[in-house]
Amino acid sequence: MSDTTKLASLKQKANRLPHSPGVYIMKNKSGDIIYIGKAKSLKNRVTQYFGAGSGHTEKVRQMVSHVDDFEYVLCDSEFEALILENSLIKQNQPKYNILLKDDKGYHYIKITGDRWKKITTSMQIDDKSAQYIGPYYSSAVVKDTVAQVRKIFKLPDCNRSFDKYSKPCLNFHIGLCDAPCRANISVQQYSEAVDSAISFIKHGGGESMIKLLQQKMLEASEKLDFEYAAKLRDRINAIKKLSDNQKVVMCSYKNQDVFASALLENTACIAALVFRNGKLIDKKHFIIEAFTDKNDLYSQFLTQYYNTNDIPPRILIDTDIESRDVLQRWFCERTGKKVEILLPQRGEQKSLVDMCRNNAADNLAQKTELLGREMSALNELERLLGLKTAPRIIEAYDISNTAGDENVGGMVVFRDGKPYKPHYRMFKIKGFVGQDDYRSMAEVLDRRFEEYKRGENEGFATLPDLILLDGGKGQISAVESVLKKHDINVPLFGMVKDSKHRTRAIATNGGDISIKANESAYRLVTAIQDEVHRFAITYHKKRRSKKMLSSELTAIEGIGQNRAHALLKHFKTMKAVRAATIDELCSVKGINKDLAQKIYNEFNI
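Above: the chain sequence. Below: its structure as tokens.
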């Protein structure tokens, strides 16, 4: 069966699906499950895969090309479909679904279960008698936390047995350990220190921890146990010092997670900021190379992420998702408490999301070897314009003329946020005479895509991810018909200037999108608009200059435009023409001895 026949068969089968919630299961020729998804309407979602492929990302097209058949499971609600989808993904680990790290990549804080408990790090849960806190994705966070609590609560970092007396190590002499090895602290006091350390890890330092330790210090003083009271005083001071010195981001909500993403082609990076007790306690990021549907990105990611992480009462995200209500319900049922998924628009919470998005962009930039600021600008542009992915290749166009004279167009190319001058192109308007920016822009794009179809010119061989026109609705309308004529499916927008010729907004057929509030995207669009204007006007001035020079020659009897151009082409400059001898002038095609004499006499007699 040919690919076309197979696609038609799958589309026919999809068209028979009901408009009901459910889970669809894509399989390859071998019967292996390669993708699992959920849908509010099975028919609407599944038919999208087997429709026109031009609107799909490369990853979706690749997945669809391997689909030989699909199955589906009807559910009573989208919520039920979400739970089933999550369960089936965990069981089958399909190739094209978002798959997070498995347990061997997690890190835990381990509290041993013996008489003298010890706090250590671990990558496995392999001791039934021990207590584990986690999992964490960051080994650095785990190691740093263990080091902090050992320092604050003066706990040992050795493997000695404390049931027998031994000589204390250097940590005791420099005040970092209470030395249970020399019976310097009782088992009860040691256990209280460990319990306080566990509470500190789970809930942070905070005022409640300090108040509890102050109460115990007062009780120890009343019992005249001044040595233990001094130890408690030192712990309090250590916690206060740590709180004062920590360079952490604070937020007004005690417990919440913040997520934001950066997308580039078929690769995504989702960053997470974890806040507990109002402080940033962890920063994570996940590179996802196997996502096929942007709509499913957060839905699948969050369900998998919270399979192994505690669910806070607030979850912030940077883009709205179809299944937000369903996810909220799922989280609420799992925790027994209210859980909100929010999309902040302003203030402190919006700033946290922006910071998270910058982290995602920076991590994705490291993977793709782009600069973080450029990656951030491309992702901000993608979000503002509603693109499917960050536009790595941007083409921009501008028209330049003087009252319709020497009408030209310029095309500049930006790759990964930077000018790519080898693919800049210049166009002399040929289709008409006079001033008409709309017709000029349409002609330039028409010729550009004719070259693309011919495939002979390297600079025109690749379609851009985004087209920007210098102008507003008029330019967009003029070019839309050209894209339709050539069956080109590339996002198209205009760049609008204010009265002072500074970039103001991005134009669409439905109105303008203000970009001034988004600094990184604003800088990029401004740079593109300035560059395409510079390029087009430079070409226009060059042509006008040549025309003015050639008019000096056409004033000579017998010299028309063709002979004037031939002279300038041969001698390069008017200075060289003026200095040429009669014999040198005769060497130019079309110039005989009589014409050479006239030219010579014009400039030398």
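The CA atoms of residues 107 and 136 lie 5 Å apart.
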